[in-house]
Structures
1.
Amino acid sequence: MEQRKYDYLIVGAGLFGATFAYMAKQQGKRCIVIDKRPHLGGNVYCDNLGGITVHKYGPHIFHTSNKEVWNFVNKFVVFNQFTLNTIATYKEKLYNLPFNMHTFHQMWDVTKPEEAFAIIEQQRREATIENPRNLEEQAISLVGRDVYETLIKGYTEKQWGRPCRELPADIIKRLPVRFSFNNNYFNDRFQGIPEGGYNALIGGLLEGTECLTYCNYIDNRSELEGIADEIIYTGPIDEFFDYRLGRLEYRSLRFEQEDLPICNFQGNAIVNYTSAEVPYTRIVEHKWFDTYNAAAINAPHTIITREYPQDFTPGAEPYYPINDERNTVLHKDYLALAKKEVPDIAFAGRLGAYKYFDMDKTIAEAMTLANREYGYKA
Ligand SMILES: Cc1cc2nc3c(=O)[nH]c(=O)nc-3n(C[C@H](O)[C@H](O)[C@H](O)COP(=O)(O)OP(=O)(O)OC[C@H]3O[C@@H](n4cnc5c(N)ncnc54)[C@H](O)[C@@H]3O)c2cc1C
């Protein structure tokens, strides 16, 4: 039988595809990576605009407690010491997130953990909710009415495009409430952003691997099908099957980017807008991800992005899967169809798996697949 040119065709040059390609190459596998976008990197791709690194598809902060993944990414890039401290603004007042003693001081003027704890307990008791039937009841039963109305309600309704009373309670399983003055958004052991952005990480992973941009698998299916023994497919699984069983649903985003001729717009990387009257959920000021880069911080201009959640319509970017019952069943049906019709194709990454994965989980999943495919050990 004629040998195919590649062992693996990897569809999608995001973090999943790039990690898998790196590992395959280490094992002597011949790989080609294709992506329909004009660049490599998928959603972690960064632009450099006038000395400022811009997270093109939304802000990306690397955080993990997985030491294997942390050691792995540190082979390719140096991480800065960025720690996410988000600010929320509601009706002209500022609050720290995640909910902690700074937030409670700003909200109720309390200074001691026991005072804040007593207020939350009182509000939870007054709400008398035993079995929360929706997200509103769930949130109030966890953190009380003030925090819910000021910091959760408007933001969540914009994010999902529906009133909290119509959203399922299990979207919020728990809400982290800290009775300490710790503003660090994440609890993970390791956190940061690669100096200069994520392109160097992707470049390191894909070094020496053949890559093609502007190449959509769907449009070039017949030429691509025969070139590799196996395919790792990180695009949407429903699109692969031409939506034969129906469309998977997503929440999408619209980004509105501005280059302002001022040095400092908001003094922080992310400011959330939690009131319903403001149509966007947050403003990102990209230079603050690069806190230790004096040239970026002191640049006489700044780049900001307003983020507007929106419905997913054909042609829009599929950002967040909606893992409700309908979509979960539909995705399982697509996986069953794939097993039957294309057993040599692995559907993976956030789109193939139809799951929100943080970056560390994406890398860990790629490691697991590489291990399953050919016994790769990091
Ligand atoms: C707004 C937002 C913010 C986020 N912030 C964080 C964060 O702070 N921290 C964190 O850890 N994670 C964050 N994430 C998650 C992170 O983006 C993912 O973990 C990661 O990007 C997943 O990588 P992937 O390779 O699976 O998918 P992607 O990055 O989406 O890559 C898939 C690639 O496949 C390509 N593709 C699709 N279909 C085809 C086709 N038919 N032909 C060719 N190519 C195709 C796409 O163009 C894309 O480049 C965030 C996600 C979003 C949406």
2.
Amino acid sequence: MSARAFYIPPVLIFGSGSSEQVGEESRKLGAKKGLIVTDEVLIKLGVLDSIKRALTQAQIQFVIYSGVFTEPTLEFVEAGLKTYKENGCDFLLAVGGGSAIDTAKAIAIMVTNPGSIGDYRGLNKVTEKGAPFIAIPTTAGTGSEVTQFTIITDTKRDVKMLIASPFLIPQEAIVDPLLTLSMPRGLTAATGIDALTHAVEAYVSVKAQPMSDIFALSAIELISGDLRQAWSNGNNREAREKTMLGALQAGIAFSNSSVALVHGMSRPIGAYFHVPHGVSNAALLGVVTEFSLIGNPARYARIAEAMGENVVGLTILEAADLAAESIIRLIEDIEIPSLPELGVDKEKLDKLASKMAEDAIASGSPGNNPRQATKEEIIELYKLAYSQ
Ligand SMILES: [Fe+2]
């Protein structure tokens, strides 16, 4: 096989209570004053309290930018960067879901790179290493704490800009499952399916590689094994630990082998209908799996096995079908709302489907899918996702 690179943060700390090490870890970076990028909801829930205490104990100063209230936008990045510079900060600390972490990633590279974040859209356009950066996720979902991607929305043009560069990988990720205990059911479900989608797409991606396969399969096993329990009882610590470990591993997997058709199609649903990312993935994952599995049945059969399905005595194709069934059952069990239930307008979807398919293809992700999809097939899949 051809040579492949594999990127992860230089330091990864996983475990319940690990976020209390943030003061010590910030000191190791040589940092003195941090910009904490987060959102108001987490502040109100008290999620930041122990983190602020740990920083104070380590004599690390900090200021807070808590303006991240939707998926990241150009405006958040500019406002956060301004706060960072005005306060003489020397490192970034993201505490939150994918939105806070993605925003902080963009701020970190804009501290050292000229122009605007939009100039770096695409692959490997960033030329300078960013400001020191620690990511502390509070959802078990995006895996953004370990990936080389950020997605920033240009709200004026309704476009989600994907920026990819190893310079976007945080210096350190501190992954503390206790921080996910306060996640409500709907968020647990949506972020969990986002993580499962990362793992599935990383495993079937045409860019899959042996190093990412290990993380992808383990993530599929952990998430499909424990997401129902984490959803059923948010205080089930074992289930929270397993799903968060799964989300972390899924992040490592897709950062190194890419996502595919589901994510390519999901972003336009988010951009045009403001459906949360995990929910639009959930609407697509079943139909896209059924569509894609003939492109690599052996891999989908292995996914079925990792999801706990009994594949003994089945043909590869029968086992691959089970992967789709198993995914659909999981999404039903955790009651993720469908696109009609979310109020997505059918007429608007029909009208926009052609443009959405073009946007999906332009993102590059569908090119990683085991079964390549034409524009017409993507339009059809949007319709199926709506009516399922
Ligand atoms: Fe995702």
3.
Amino acid sequence: MAQSAASASQGEGYLVTENLVKHFDDVAAVDEVSLSIRKGEIFALLGSSGCGKSTLLRMLAGFETPSSGRILLGGQDVVGMPPYVRPVNMMFQSYALFPHLSIWENVAFGLKREGLPKAEVQQRTDDMLNLVQLGAYAKRKPHQLSGGQQQRVALARSLAKRPKLLLLDEPLGALDKKLREQTQFELVNIIEKVGVTCVMVTHDQEEAMTMANRIAVMSKGRVLQVGSPEEVYEYPCNRFVADFIGHANLFDGKLSVDEVDRCAVATAIGEIHVGHGVSGALDMPVAVAIRPEKIGISKQRPAHVDHNLFQGRVKEIAYFGSYNTYIVQTLDGRKIKVTEANTDRHDLSDITWEDEVFFWWRNNSGVVLRD
Ligand SMILES: Nc1ncnc2c1ncn2[C@@H]1O[C@H](COP(=O)(O)OP(=O)(O)O)[C@@H](O)[C@H]1O
Ligand SMILES: [Mg+2]
């Protein structure tokens, strides 16, 4: 969670970066990044455009030289090692298959260039095409395959050389949404079957959540938080992460109670109770983050709820098929987002525009953020 970014360089990582920095002129595109990635892990670098993901990946590949810091792969410092010597393969967003070569030749290309014996080239290429379930397409040209299939050829080509580290830069960026979702699972299955350690870059939080074992959330060259998809979603370390991963309602306030296993925050809508301690100073400014799906909503006052219960007026409703979203305006004028799953299609909500509603959540649904 919050502390794992700082302590990442300890422990037995297979790929370790220590205080890695890359300056372009006087801008730090990558700023003091320390990560520890386990063998066989699928690790995502997640952040918006320009935050330094590709630069970090390119340093791992050897296409950029760090301004300072170390990169250890299997205990060996690889900084200064040219890309082709590193046991690393990078698959680019535009995966650039050779258009005039068959699928089989595309996958075999790198192996032949390495000068492997003919029989081994044959065996490995066949194995890789079978692995990505394209054995039957070996003789086709890239343009005769769908985008998703081409993606799998590119992956087969990257894996054929048996890299110890596979780097994927926005691997599904060229595919449309539906195909992307399907291909996400296919890629994960293949990568897990091979067991290769993988660092992938994406700006798409759903993609990171679906594919990765752990995620590093980046902003402005820095890693803000490292954790499993569940950890970064349930326990974001600060406002940026809370808001970047999914949506969070943020309530600013001051810490009013702080015990080992609970605390309270005085906010403009009232006191909010939270099911964890903060070990902070009373009256310190903090925010409470609540996910929209953790908020209950009803026109009737709920029975047995005696705190974290507030009132407001419904200003907007949107139906997204599997869930409804309500924008509720509180008495002090701020807007809260609430989502409600459509579990039963006969159970249409009776809430409509301008209704006065109650909304509430459980103590352990909130997270206190210090910054
Ligand atoms: N070769 C370069 N020369 C100068 N600036 C660069 C170069 N490559 C990247 N940058 C800058 O570094 C920052 C991070 O870029 P990049 O790593 O590509 O971000 P991301 O992949 O997260 O979108 C950006 O501000 C970008 O403009
Ligand atoms: Mg990029």
4.
Amino acid sequence: MNYDDILTLAKQYAVPIVRTKSHSILENLIKKNNPKCILEIGTAIGYSGIIMLKSSSAKLVTIEHNKNYVKLAKSNFKKFKVNKRVKILFGDCHVKIAEMVADNKYKDYFDFIFLDGPKAQYSLLLENLIYLLKPNSTLVVDNVLFRGYTTNEQIAPTKRFKTIIKRLNDFIDMCKNHKELYDIKLIDTEDGILYAKKISK
Ligand SMILES: C[S@@+](CC[C@H](N)C(=O)[O-])C[C@H]1O[C@@H](n2cnc3c(N)ncnc32)[C@H](O)[C@@H]1O
């Protein structure tokens, strides 16, 4: 199995996964940061998880609430021989993240977090994700520019889109103004990627 096989599978099941340029950016960020323990929100069928595992020796905890995706992801992780380094948490990310926060063990635990889950709810997750992120480590968020609409709200076609865009813009502002984040970068490619680092204590 190779990446093209997963892309075909994603098309077949209409699963949204990181696109070509985001694939390269994510791969480069992982190589540059060399994390040991990654948290991902939004496993889908395992594509971005495999990219991160194949470009590092890290372990991955990844959260997904779609049962069918979890099944496919498990099979894909196995086919790429990275399954021993992955723990899939099946369920709602708000619940799973709150459980980790409640468990003292996970404070400052992950040295790379990739947020690629429910777009309209990123702001609700931010505080807890920062709690779980190790100081000086990296937060990467996909789709923050939401097909270019985030920078041009007026052209959003539906009310639902407008809501997502407003919430994504609020999320970007929250990150820019957060006292525990620095080095915020908005990478204007495809759907847009936000990059941030957590301050050292
Ligand atoms: C853009 S896809 C993730 C793509 C994946 N990271 C990749 O590039 O291969 C977003 C995923 O988040 C999952 N998701 C959405 N809301 C969620 C929630 N509340 N809890 C857990 N997973 C959720 C969706 O089922 C979907 O698989």
